[in-house]
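If your schedule permits, I should be very grateful for your opinion on a structural question. Kindly check, if you would, that the fold set down in the tokens agrees with what the sequence suggests. Thank you for your consideration; the sequence and its tokens are set out here:
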Amino acid sequence: MLSLFFNVRGQNAQEYFNSGLDKLNAKEYQGAIADFNKAIEINPQFVDAYVNRGIAKDHSGDYSGAMADYNKVVELNPGASFPYYNRGNLKDDIKDYEGAIADFNKAIELKHDYEVAYVNRGLAKYHSGDYQGAITDYDKAIELNPGDEDAYSNRGNAKDDAKDYQDAIADLNKAIEINPQFAHAYNNRGITKYHLADYQGAMSDYNKAIEIDPLNPIYYRNMGDAKSYGLRSEERRVGKECRSRWSPYH
């Protein structure tokens, strides 16, 4: 029999959870947190409420609060892969790359075909300077999901930093083929073309990124660099973008 948890007004934890989820999806993070608080108050074992409250806290900049929620989820459900995955994302965000990789390792141990965990472990390895390790993880992600534009784009970034420029462009081409509106991939292909001294090609890609996402200042800065022709590539790597993804629900 399904057990429902109610407060004194007759509202159940699931109703608060559903409301919080709607607010989370609408990026109303404080409202979402308030609803998840209520759901957890009614049902202190509500794993999904802790997961999504952690995501809302992370997006609102409360990293310690998010970490506490993910730790609670691991405590309540240690055999599930997704809590380690989300905690790994948070650790990567706060530059605890070793801790992030350890959590992604655990997520993959528990779920061997966890494609996005390979993508985000690759990102943590990339951030720690292990470009070859990152490429290996992206290879596995693409093996599991050949249509993942993020895996191709992120692998292209790693190959660019490893100075394998032609293969980097091939990966970024593939990311754009999968998603022609992928502004990050145009931006990153522009960086690789800049490294190859193809300044016109770089500016064309930056223009396309700006056309898709005109509010991103990185693309304008990179366009200025390409026009100047004079900045060292090391100074421009701050303009490169990778993408990770969260696991909102159980």
